[in-house]
Amino acid sequence: MRTQGPVTHPDGPSTIDSVENNGQCQQKCVAAASSDCCTAPGLALQNHSVVLIHDWLTGMRGGEKVLEVLCELFPHAPLFTLLHIRGSVSPIIENRAITTSSLQRMPLAAKRYRYYLPLFPVFAEMTKARHCDLVISTSHAVAKAMVVRKGARPRHVCYIHSPMRYVWDRFDDYFGSNRVGAVPSRFFFRPIANALQRYDCKTNERVDVFVANSRFVAARVRRLYDRDAVVVAPPVDTDRFVKVERQPEDWYLVVSALVPYKRVDHAIAACAALGRSLKVVGSGPEAKKLAILAGQLGGNVEFLGFVRDDDLVGYYSRARGLLFPGIEDFGIVPVEAMAAGCPVVALGRGGILDSMNEHTGVLYADESVEGLKAAVVRFENLSFDSTEIRKQARTFGKDAFVSGFNAVLADVINSK
Q1: 190: CATH
Q2: What digits encode the pLDDT tens for the residues 360-409?
Q3: Per-residue pLDDT tens for 211-256?
Q4: Can you give the residue range of the structural domain that contains 218?
C-alpha cells in the first residue's frame, strides 16, 4: 500500500493551475448527455479530456464535499451519476452537464432510491462514461463501474470512500436479522448482497489507481479487492474555524447522523452514568429511540436536530469535548471539532487513527459504554492546548487534498 501521510507528496505541485477554457469544449459541455468529456484544467492534465463520476446526488455529505473540490478543479468536466435530485447539492456541482441513469425515472426514486439497490449494477452498466482520456470517480457503491474500458483508455482514478459497505462489513447494520427480520435477512437480502459483492469485486478491474480516504479504507481495499491504494485524506473546510475563539463550557457534544452504527447510544448512556450534560446535533431514524433512552436513563441530553453551519461552529467552540464513539471510514466531524480547538474522545478504530494524536484528545479501545466512560474520566484529568489541536486539523485542509490528489493524477498521466 502506497501512502502519502494524510495528503502530502514531496515532489508534487501544491495546486492545480487553471488554463484558458477551450471554447469548443465548453460548447460540448452545454450539450449535456451528448457530451462525454471536457478538456480539463491542470498542471498535469492540460489537453486531456476528463469525466467525473459520482454514485448519486441527493445531499451534501462528505462524499459530495470531495466531489465539489473536484468540480472546482475541473469546472467544465461533465458529471455522470445514477440519480440527481435538483437543488440538493451545491451550485458548484449543479452548474454543469449532468448525465443520470434510468434510476432517475423510476417511481419514488427521489425518496426511496436505496430500495433499488439490487438494480444498481444494471443502472451503472447502462450509464457509463467513454470517449475521454481520464475518468475520476468518487465511489462508495457503483460509481467505479460506470466507465467503458477499451484497451488502455480511458485511464481511471477512483477516490474510494469505502467498498460498498452495506454488502460487506456493515451488512448487519442495514439488513441484519435485528433490522429486517431473520427470514428476510437470510433468504432475501443475503443473496442480493452476495451478488453485489461479486459485481463489486469484478468491476474493480476497471480502475487503474485507487485513492483511499484513510489507511483504514486502504486496508479494506487490499482485503476485499487485493489492490493497493494511495491514501489522500478528504478536504475539510478548516478555514471557517480560524477566527473562532475557544470558550469551553461544561457539556459534551455529539455531531452525527442518528443511525445505529454511529453508537450515539453509547454517548448518551456514558454521560448519564457520569452525570455529564450532552448536546446532540443531527437527525436520523434513531432519533425517537435515542430520546426514549435518554429519558429512561435520566440523562441531561439536549437533541438539537439539524443546525446551520455557523451555529455548528459555535457548538464546537463551546463544547468541553467532542464524543465520537462510532467507527468511521475517515471522520470529518472530529477534524472540524479540532479545527475549532475542541479536543476529542474517540473510539480508537477506523479513520480516526489518521487524524488524531496525543495532543488532540483521548482514544479508547473498548467499544462499549464502559469503555467510553473510562475514556471521559481519563480525558477530564488531562489538559489540551487548543493551538496544538488546531495545528493538527489544518493538515487536513483543502489545499492539502488538492496537492495530494494532483500528485496522484500526475503519476497516472506520466505512467502512460
Answers
A1: 3.40.50.2000
A2: 999 999 999 999 999 999 999 999 999 999 999 999 999 999 999 999 99
A3: 999 999 999 999 999 999 999 999 999 998 988 899 999 999 999 9
A4: 23-235+398-414
User: Are the C-beta atoms of 253 and 349 separated by less than 8 Å?
Assistant: no
**Do 207 and 349 reside in the same domain of the chain?**
no
Quick check: is 6 in a domain?
no
Tell me how far apart the alpha carbons of residues 352 and 333 are, in angstroms, rounded to a whole number. 10
Helix (H, G, I), strand (E, B) or coil at 150: strand
Question: What are φ and ψ of residue 160, in 5° steps?
Answer: -100, 120
How far, in Å, are 122, 176, 190, 203, 355 from residue 193 at the CA level?
15, 11, 5, 15, 32
C-alpha pair distances (Å), 106 with each of 116, 289, 324? 9, 32, 37
Nearest CA among 236, 68, 224, 207 for reference residue 149: 207
Least confident of 40-54, 192-206, 279-293: 40-54
Which residue type, as a one-letter code, is found at position 172?
A: D
In angstroms, the CA 348 to CA 327 distance is 8
pLDDT > 90 in the chain, percent: 69
pLDDT for the residue numbered 7: 36
Q: Which grid cell sits at 119?
A: 438494480
Residue 214 shares a structural domain with residue 255: no
Which residue is listed with cell 467532542?
322
Q: Where are the beta strands (DSSP E) in 314-395?
A: 321-324, 344-347, 361-364
